[in-house]
Amino acid sequence: MSDGPKLEIQMLQDRVLVKLSPEDGERRSSGGIVIPATAQVARRLSWGDVLGVGNSVRNVKTGDRVLFNPDDQHEVEIQGEGHLVMRERDIHAVATEQSEHGTGLYL
């Protein structure tokens, strides 16, 4: 970027800006075996942190953690870090402190 004025990013319509959670790399099985991020047994969904939402987004807010398929999203680089842009309908679940229709499971 140039040395011009800083521009704030505002998401439009039903778009959500998400930063992937750091733990979406290597993971361990319940037995302690390291599973590399490149291993694919099935299509794996990922958790990410919501950084911004458009004015038509109804069920997700900034600060929520969301579950989604990263393969179906658009990636954008902001300040040298990768972020994903998706539609609200592409989000499978929301982890939030306040919920009306929770599952009883917690992260």
UniProtKB/TrEMBL annotation:
Keywords: Chaperone
Top-level taxon: Bacteria
Single Gene Ontology MF annotation: ATP binding
Keyword Chaperone: yes
Matching InterPro entries: Chaperonin_GroES, Chaperonin_GroES_sf, GroES-like_sf
Subunit structure: Heptamer of 7 subunits arranged in a ring.
Physiological role: Together with the chaperonin GroEL, plays an essential role in assisting protein folding. The GroEL-GroES system forms a nano-cage that allows encapsulation of the non-native substrate proteins and provides a physical environment optimized to promote and accelerate protein folding. GroES binds to the apical surface of the GroEL ring, thereby capping the opening of the GroEL channel.
Family indicated by similarity: Belongs to the GroES chaperonin family.
Protein name, as recorded: 10 kDa chaperonin
Organism annotation: Amycolatopsis umgeniensis
